[in-house]
Amino acid sequence: MKTDVVIIGGGVIGTAIARELSRYRLDITLIEKEEDVAMGTSKGNSGIIHAGYDADFKTLKGQLNVKSNPQFDKLCRDLKVPFKRIGSLVVGFTKEDFNKLKDLKENGEKNGIKNLKIITDDELFKLEPNLNPQAKYALYAPNAGIISPYELTIALADNAVINGAKVLLETEVKDIRIENGQVCGLLTNRGLIEIRVIINAAGLYADEMAKGVGENFKIKPLKGEYQLFDKQWGNLVNHILFPIPTKLSKGILVAPTVHNNLLIGPNSYQVEEKDDLATTKAGIKEVYEEAKKLIPHLPHQDLVASFAGLRADVEGGDDFIIEASKKIRGFINVAGIVSPGLSSAPAIAEMVSDILKEVAQKIYPQLELNYKNNFTETLPAQPRFTDYVDKIEKWQEIIEKDSDYGEIICRCEKVSKGEIIRAIHRPVPAKSLDAIKRRTRAGMGRCQGGFCSPRVLRILSEELKISPLRITKKGPGSEVLKTMTKEMIKETGVKIKDEVRV
Amino acid sequence: MEEKEIVCVSCPMGCRMTVQAKEGDIISITGNDCPKGIEYAKEEFTNPLRILPTTVRVIGGELPLVSVKTEKAIPKGLLLKAMAEIAEIEVKAPIKIGQVIKDDLIGTGVSLVATRNIKRANSNLLSYKVLK
Amino acid sequence: MKLEYDLVIIGGGPAGLAAALEAEKNGVENILLLERDKYLGGILFQCIHNGFGLQYFKEDLTGPEYADRFITQINNHKIDIKTETMVVKITPNKQIIALNRNDGLLCIKARAIVLAMGCRERTREAIAIAGSRPAGIFTAGTAQRYINIEGYMPGREVVILGSGDIGMIMARRMTLEGARVKAVLEIMPFSTGLTRNKVQCLDDFDIPLRFNHTITRIEGEKRVEKVTIAQVDKNLQVIPGTEEEISCDTILLSVGLIPENELTKEVGIKLDPITGGPIVNENRETEIEGIFACGNVLQVYDLADYVSEEGEIVGKVAKEYLMGKRRYRSQSVKIIPGENIGYVVPQHIDFLVPDRKKIKLFMRVKKPEERVRINLIDDKGKVLSSYKKGIVTPGEMESVYLPEVLLKDRLKSLTVSVGKEDKEQR
Hints:
Chain B is of the alpha+beta class. Chain B folds into 2 domains: 2-46; 53-114, CPE0013-like fold, CATH 3.10.530.10. Chain B contains 2 helices and 10 strands, in the order βββαββββαβββ. Chain B has helices at residues 35-46, 79-86; strands spanning 2-7, 16-22, 25-30, 49-50, 53-59, 65-70, 74-75, 90-92, 100-102, 112-114. Chain B has a 5-stranded mixed beta sheet, with no helix packed on it. By secondary structure, chain C is α/β, with parallel strands linked by helices. Classes of the chains: A alpha+beta, B alpha+beta, C alpha/beta. Chains A and C meet through helix 8, strand 19, helix 10, helix 13 and strand 24 of A and strand 6, strand 7, strand 10, helix 3 and strand 12 of C.
């Protein structure tokens, strides 16, 4: 196949770029090796839109975060993604901490943030009554917010597809074809794509992609573990609470999620494998103990989930790598997008779009970046039953249009059959239990799918018209069921007939 | 001489009994707290029997399986053999609770009976068909 | 759709069924039973094993047969039933909001409500087992649903965590259907399930039961590949160096049931932190007058028979409540769990009932003990009544009868304690 631009990587960065580029009259293809978008770092992070005072104002991290921050209200309204601008507090206990907070404030102001404030005493505890009483100071950043990072990624992808981009899932890069110092093709597991421009947004694997054009930065996965508590604890804090940051990371935070759970984490340690998402006993303990320093009365039961995410840390690097490769023409790196990557996504996409214009001018002048006149900014409304609990009479109208909305499948998160079927037929379709979970929240509640997963599985099987035996948790290899009942005993029964069993 | 330990299930005490036997004949039973234990130990030792509850595949029903059980307990050693035979059975809906699904399961003389009702699937809907 | 009923029962499992029938038999006229699944019976239809009805019917029935006894009666009585209907909210003034595809939104005004929602299973996440998140991890009940109702085998080589009844039953079920259960692990030094199940589900099939063990890590990226297990000490802490690996493709978790009280909490009813269910009086009435609870939603039961018994209590008293015919004691008697008692239901006794002779108290002990007495002690420390018990264990719910005569007017509290057999105090 032939396309104008290929974006490697279906995380929040790749999809944000796809959406941005789909404004232009371009043939865009996003390829993702997993069976859904948002399967990498984009589903295992804190979901924070940072105000932007952390990173040095001279870096891309600093500039792009601050540039993006104000864009999230409109973006999330348009894409129907939950986002709450609840503000953040970096909490300090000592005079030394106070000085660090002052530095952060100063850097933030250099970054262009005008409403940072250092607060103490009564004001602090009025904002956060459950804060450790030994806390003394905090840097208050009203611009920070919480978001669902995978819902954002999926929505960006859906919108890109609506606007003409192609998203190819389960499509993995095998080789990059180069001719005369210029990218000319991309060999994938599904065949060859003729291409002149590749945007490398491959997250943890961006170094392996870039190696194909002779770049040698290395990405080391840095793991962070998280814990999520039941929604009854979402009100324990009103803002995102951070400890004083260190060189390594922003530290273990305590925050409500946009769906009212309580989130704590992440810790930060190197791991060997880029798919090592295991949680550990030590990590669970470390996150809990550290989070307690901010909120002493953390719940010790009602743990709904724990999970881990990997950051694509560039060895020896400390800023985003967003630039056209100097080694080979037509290759744009968007790598090392660690925190505040999610927060910077809109501005990163714009920056990449500018780089693309330059690159195109040099090597592909026919590729004019002309705006479409029918770009659709928004996604259609996605009515969710759980949003209607306080105006429940309005849900009746929705049931009348489609009775599937009257059947509740996931009791814990109150998700209707209509929402699940809709998710299966979205522009970037959900085909697995986890993909449904990310789009509808079915299976994310207290019982973690104990009640609803057999039902969700059956709905997937009926809608996709495939055997329930082929439904997976997260793509090929993770099929939920082994055989139909009676098939297995027929297999083993034959052996047992002659064996003496007690 | 043989010695076998048997835990009684007649009541929650769960007495641990020891059965001593020679060439298959019971010589002594010790460890029981009441006469029910003796009865149970005798049975368990000489010919342990079990009720077999399982499912059988249904054709044309509202559900793909009907729950069943053996009407009486059958020898413990035949359970898996019975399961293999049951795996080959298919029964047509409608099914009534108590209905004999199979006479004389693997030659034991014991019947396999349905333990629930299964209605026929709606004619204008696909029967609960498991897609291959 | 707006509806009005005298009695609305939420949950069509054994508790709800018994409550509905008993209420109808006692003269309650407008009864609505709401059930979220397609069929009545609750969890009973997937419990295809026998052991039900030994107390209630004096017969050894399978779960479906036990359910059928009640469902057949329900169909012969004047009780309105709505299946595939999910209750999403209850208000303190007894309005129920529910949903189904045919009626759409239902706003039901009830004069009395029975909570009979049962329970959910504790998850892998809730007990924070470290490791990856592959396919192949199921709670035992979900696996049971797949095998017995949906018609699929969820795994071939299985490790089961938890020797409660469900775990042991599933060990047998999976083995009978051709899977290989490599081990059942139990973190405690004793099984929390019935002895009968240990014998007939594990011993019969040579499935190893390993006490003082737990799973410390799950491995496998797409599908479970193996688990690391380890021994624990008496404080349930892992003993380093005792780790072993067991390769498997499936993990079944039978690590506890949690009464499903989200609706209860949302309406503001206080829960007992030990039972996980609402705090109730002897009528199984919660702190909101006219809202009752019975079955697993109130306390996790071992036997469906006792669930039906409790449903009957509620069915009977619902009529009295609706008639306004109840006399309260001048002060409530608080029932306090004492030595080696985890909890007692009911938590307080509120009513004066002239022809009542005794009240059944249900409880669970914290640790197993043999040759003990269960003592009922008044607020002055005097043992009012004492009951001999051969063996008590957390896995088997206990009950004693509290004679009405002991409920003197000025009695403020009654402590239930486990004491040694020989120490009979008068």
